[in-house]
Each structure stands twice: as C-alpha cells, then as structure tokens.
C-alpha cells in the first residue's frame, strides 16, 4: 500500500515556534536531520505517516492540527478577492489555500479588515441616504462599478424617453405586424439585413441567452427562453438596427464615465426600445386605461410576459397622454436588487423598497400569486403595491429554478384608477407600516427588523428587552 503523504510545512513551523524549539532541537528529538526538517517546513518534503506518529508521541500533538482543513479561511478569502475592487488580483484556489496555510493569522486579519470595510461601506451608504432624505447633498462617493453607475442613472431619471417612443411607434406602424410581431421582426431582419434567427439547444449554447454571429449573419437564441423572452431578444436586435440613431443620441446625453458604462447603458436603452416596440405607446396606454392597469389582462392582450408589462407601465408619461406614475422593483429571494425604475424616477427617498415587510418578499411563498397591499411610510406617505414572482429561463431537471419577484407601486391616491385598488378600498385593514430600510427606519418593536437604525444608539438596558432582534433607545 502506498504511504500517505501530507504537505503541512507551515503548520509544523507554527507548532515548532509555539514550542519555542529550534529546527536543530526538533530534528534531534524526531530523529531526522535539521536539513530534512527545513525541507519539510518549506513543503519540499512530505510529512509521512511515521513522522506524524512520532510528532504525536513526542509532543502530544493532535494529528488533526496538522491535517486540519483551512476550508473556512479559504472560503472567506475567496469572498474577499471576489470583490470588484480586487477583480484584477484574483488568485487561484491553490494560492488561497497556501496563504491560509502559511499565514493563517494574516489571512484572518485580511478577512476581518474586509468585513469591517463592507460594514463601513453599508453604514456610509445608509448615512448618505439619510442625509439625502433630509435635503442635504453629499459629495462622498465610494468606488463604483460601471454597472452601479448605469443603475443609478436610470433609477434617478424619468422612465420615459420621447425620441425612442416616437421612433418605435413609427417603426411599428410601418412594419404592420398584425398578430405575429415575432414573425414580422424575423422577416424584417432577413429582408433588410440578411440576418436569420435560429433557436439553439441548451448543450449548444449553455451560457448565453442571445448571441449574434457577424460572420454567418445569424442571431442565436437559447431554447431556455420563454416565447416572450425570445420575442424581446429579437426586438432588442431590431431596435439597435432600426432605432440606432435615437439610442446613440440618448446615450450621449447620459454622459457615462467609461466605455463599459456606455456599453451597459446602450443595452438598457435597447431594452427600453424593445418594450416600446412590443407595446406601442398609444395602443398600450389606451388599453391600460380601459383595463384599469390589470397587468394580467394587458400581458394577454399584447402577448408579453408579466415582467415585460410591469416594466412597460412605468414608462407611460407622454405629455398629454400620461398614465398612473408607477415605479417598479425586482429582487431575488435573497433580497438582491436587479432593477428599479419609475415614471418619475424610483422614489428612493420616500419609498426606499428595502423593507422586509413589503409583500414582494411574501410573494416567494406563493409563486405566481398576485399580492396587493397598501403600505404606510414613517412620514405618513402611503403607497399601493402589487407583487408577484417571475420565472427565469427554463432550467434542466438537475438545476434549481431561477425565480425573482417584481413589485409595481404608485401613490395611494391613484387607487381609484386601478383594478387593484378594489382590494384595499373599503376594507377595515389599516395600511401595513413599513420603512425605507432597516438602517433608516426608527419604528419601535418591529419584528421584521434586520439591522439597527443608523441614527439611534443600540440597546436598551439590563432591565428591558425589546421585541426586535436589534433594540435601540
């Protein structure tokens, strides 16, 4: 039987230093030469089973201490080096294991420092939001990724782009798609640009939704996508060709700071244009008013998904033909935010959208079910919010379903114009008290509180325990 070999030089060196022994002294007690021990400590020779037993016998060392796993520290280091700020310095798994082995205290210090940095970043973000809510502007800005810059720009601005809306509506009229918009767009791509659309199986295109091959002039779509998402991907390609001038002009006006941000911004504008093409403004706005913004009715009428129609209702702000000023929020079941938009900009200062009591979180308990609720902010502002889960691309049998949830909301004053207002009008239930986020909310005794408030001292006293997991004075 082959002898098991273990390379654990740095751990052996730590043990020797703790015992305050020189290499010569330890080598003599183990019956090996100092030079051989030196090679072992530098991981150039293995620790054999016989040597392990000798170490255990002479120094009463727990063998697990030498063979101990560094998985926890290695995983924590992976988290540190996955931060976008360190994207260019991402080491391999083996290098991280070597760091955790050779310098565990230093590795633990790096992890502790990183977590303190993330906590400070979170507090600074909360403080900036708090100051903004009170009307103070802040010049403090941390390092931002291009995707963060793009998100912030689109979340702040009105979700209505007149030039793209008009161009999309004009193009739709010339196209005359009838009841088959997907077929009309495929035909236009083939006729005008020689582009053929092909649906590819998962094993051929496992990692992409859409890919355009310039050499063969073919647009490949993944079979994972629903027919609605396939339509949007085709529409995105069409709008970049047919509405390119309007998209480029709007992109220049946004004045992003980097090429990467401009690339992401262009995609967001193309996505906006695709929705405008799939649901032309005039027809969609009229249908929305007749249906009292019943999202299920609208998605059936325009042959689109719930997510697509929820996005579209936030865009209805054409002067003289505006609709209810909706805002929209999409998250996953871990609370990660994917998208925020609003007819008048996402109401970050008034609504926030990060309260665990919002029905967007409850939607995950009943997939596909629509939740309607009236909510009240600490300052007395009330909103009507509608939430529902969304299904992502079709997964294989052994893959976990990707599910997100979307919230569409508006000021409670518009409830009479919406079919969902009937769910809250005349009921004895009071609006659900919510907050912008736990860091900025000072409601006492909240059972859902996930973090202490930023501007209040934590803890009560030894005589009082509050209902919240994070008591404060």
From TrEMBL:
List the CDD domains hit by this protein, alphabetically.
Answer: HTH_XRE
- Keyword annotations for this protein? DNA-binding, Transcription, Transcription regulation
Q: Which SMART domains match?
A: HTH_XRE
Work out whether the entry's keyword set contains Cell division: no
- Asked if Lipid biosynthesis is a keyword of the record, the answer is no
Q: Which domain of life is it from?
A: Bacteria
Q: Which residues form the HTH cro/C1-type domain?
A: 12-66
Identify its protein family. Answer: Belongs to the short-chain fatty acyl-CoA assimilation regulator (ScfR) family.
Instruction: Fetch the PANTHER family from UniProt.
Output: HTH-TYPE TRANSCRIPTIONAL REGULATOR, HTH-TYPE TRANSCRIPTIONAL REGULATOR SUTR
Protein name per its UniProtKB record: Helix-turn-helix domain-containing protein
Q: Which organism is it from?
A: Hoeflea poritis
């Amino acid at each position: 039987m082959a002898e098991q070999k273990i390379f654990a030089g740095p751990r052996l060196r730590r043990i020797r230093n703790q015992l305050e022994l020189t290499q010569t002294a330890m080598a003599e007690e183990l019956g090996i030469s100092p030079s051989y021990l030196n090679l072992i400590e530098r991981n150039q020779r293995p620790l054999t089973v016989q040597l392990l037993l000798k170490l255990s016998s002479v120094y009463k060392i727990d063998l697990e201490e030498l063979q101990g796993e560094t998985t926890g520290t290695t995983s924590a280091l992976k988290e540190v080096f996955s931060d976008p700020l360190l994207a260019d310095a991402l080491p391999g798994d083996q290098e991280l294991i070597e760091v955790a082995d050779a310098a565990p205290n230093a590795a633990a210090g790096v992890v502790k420092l990183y977590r303190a940095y993330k906590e400070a970043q979170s507090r600074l973000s909360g403080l900036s939001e708090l100051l903004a809510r009170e009307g103070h502007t802040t010049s403090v800005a941390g390092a931002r990724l291009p995707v963060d810059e793009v998100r912030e720009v689109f979340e702040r601005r009105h979700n209505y782009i007149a030039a793209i809306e008009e161009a999309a509506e004009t193009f739709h009229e010339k196209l005359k798609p009838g009841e088959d918009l997907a077929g009309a767009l495929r035909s236009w791509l083939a006729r005008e640009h020689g582009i053929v659309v092909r649906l590819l199986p998962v094993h051929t295109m496992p990692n992409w939704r859409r890919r355009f091959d310039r050499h063969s002039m073919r647009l490949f779509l993944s079979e994972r996508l629903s027919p609605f998402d396939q339509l949007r991907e085709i529409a995105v390609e069409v709008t970049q060709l047919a509405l390119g001038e309007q998209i480029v002009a709007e992109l220049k006006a946004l004045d992003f700071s980097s090429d990467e941000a401009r690339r992401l911004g262009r995609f967001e504008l193309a996505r906006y244009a695709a929705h405008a093409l799939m649901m032309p403004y005039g027809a969609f706005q009229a249908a929305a008013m007749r249906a009292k913004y019943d999202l299920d009715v609208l998605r059936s009428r325009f042959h689109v998904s719930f997510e697509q129609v929820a996005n579209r209702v936030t865009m209805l702000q054409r002067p003289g033909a505006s609709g209810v000023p909706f805002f929209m929020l999409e998250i996953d079941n871990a609370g990660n935010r994917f998208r925020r938009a609003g007819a008048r900009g996402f109401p970050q200062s008034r609504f926030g959208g990060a309260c665990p009591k919002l029905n967007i979180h409850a939607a995950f308990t009943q997939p596909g079910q629509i939740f309607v609720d009236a909510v009240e902010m600490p300052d007395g502002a009330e909103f009507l919010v509608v939430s529902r889960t969304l299904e992502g691309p079709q997964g294989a049998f052994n893959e976990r379903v990707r599910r997100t949830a979307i919230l569409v909301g508006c000021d409670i004053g518009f409830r009479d114009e919406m079919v969902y207002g009937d769910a809250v009008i005349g009921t004895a239930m009071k609006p659900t008290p919510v907050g912008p986020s736990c860091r900025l909310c000072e409601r006492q005794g909240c059972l859902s509180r996930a973090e202490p408030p930023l501007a209040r001292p934590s803890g009560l006293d030894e005589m009082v325990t509050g209902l919240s997991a994070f008591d404060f004075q």
